[in-house]
Design a protein that fits this description.
The complex is a heterodimer. By secondary structure, chain A is mainly β. Chain A has one domain: Immunoglobulin-like (Sandwich). In chain A, 0% of the residues lie in helices and 58% in strands. Chain A is built from no helices and eleven strands. Chain A is globular, with a radius of gyration of 13 Å. Chain B is mainly β. Chain B has one domain: Immunoglobulins (Immunoglobulin-like, Sandwich), CATH 2.60.40. Chain B has no helices and eleven strands. In chain B, the strands form two sheets. In chain B, strands 2, 4, 5, 9, 10 and 11 form a six-stranded mixed sheet that branches. In chain B, strands 1-3-8-7-6 form a five-stranded antiparallel sheet, with no helix packed on it. Chain B is globular. Classes of the chains: A mainly beta, B mainly beta. Chains A and B meet through β4, β5 and β10 of A and β4, β5, β9 and β10 of B.
Chain lengths: 112, 111
């Protein structure tokens, strides 16, 4: 069966520090991978998605970036965090999008 | 700009009540409408609706899509405290490469 792992679960980082969140999928190949952010009390905002290794589509201009170094690995990064980067970050995958997404357990990031 | 709009933003009802959550969308190249339930962490999939007028049911939950009027509703009958959650509506593009979400409806069920 397919599983998605996302870590860490919680992160507190100072303004200006770098960020690296990792997401990996097991039990499938060539998945579509997604990064979403959810601000408090808000819906999910699509940040990046990838349909293959090295293929990254950015939805929102910001100081975040994403990379897909391996087929089942998706990384969200920042060189210098801003206070506005605080939020709940969710990774998701889909093999056939007709069945919807499967989400990871999320990372709650607080920038202080 | 493509968007998904949900209403109400929040709703408080008593256990046993029936609720209707609304979702409207303006999405170019629309394929399907999805509903998710989010409790503490990751959203969990409820329904995917692709055709108009066909109701999907799962226990006390049901949903229907109107592709002419560009909206969907999610009904929950005989609500229970375990139904308390954020309910998210999302639109799937016909390219099947991404989904955009609405802001969610926060539903609270009082015993």
């Amino acid at each position: 069966s397919q599983t998605i792992h996302q870590w860490p679960a919680t992160l507190v980082q100072p303004v200006g520090s770098p960020l690296s969140l990792e997401c990996t999928v097991e039990g499938t190949s060539n998945p579509n991978l997604y990064w979403y952010r959810q601000a408090a009390g808000r819906g999910l905002q699509l940040l990046f998605y990838s349909v293959g290794i090295g293929q990254i589509s950015s939805e929102v201009p910001q100081n975040l970036s994403a990379s897909r170094p391996q087929d089942r690995q998706f990384i969200l990064s920042s060189k210098k965090l801003l206070l506005s980067d605080s939020g709940f970050y969710l990774c998701a995958w889909s093999r056939q999008l007709r069945a919807g997404y499967t989400f990871g357990s999320g990372t709650r990031l607080t920038v202080v | 700009e493509d968007k998904v709009v949900q209403s109400p933003l929040s709703l408080v009802v008593h256990e046993g009540d029936t609720v209707t959550l609304n979702c409207s969308y303006e999405v170019t190249n629309f394929r399907s409408l999805l509903w998710y339930k989010q409790e503490k962490k990751a959203p969990t999939f409820l329904f995917m609706l692709t055709s108009s007028g066909i109701e999907k049911k799962s226990g006390r939950l049901s949903s229907i899509l109107d592709k002419k009027e560009l909206f969907s509703i999610l009904n929950i009958t005989a609500t229970q405290t375990g139904d308390s959650a954020i309910y998210l509506c999302a639109a799937l593009y016909s390219s099947a490469s991404k989904i955009i979400f609405g802001s969610g409806t926060r539903l609270s069920i009082r015993p």
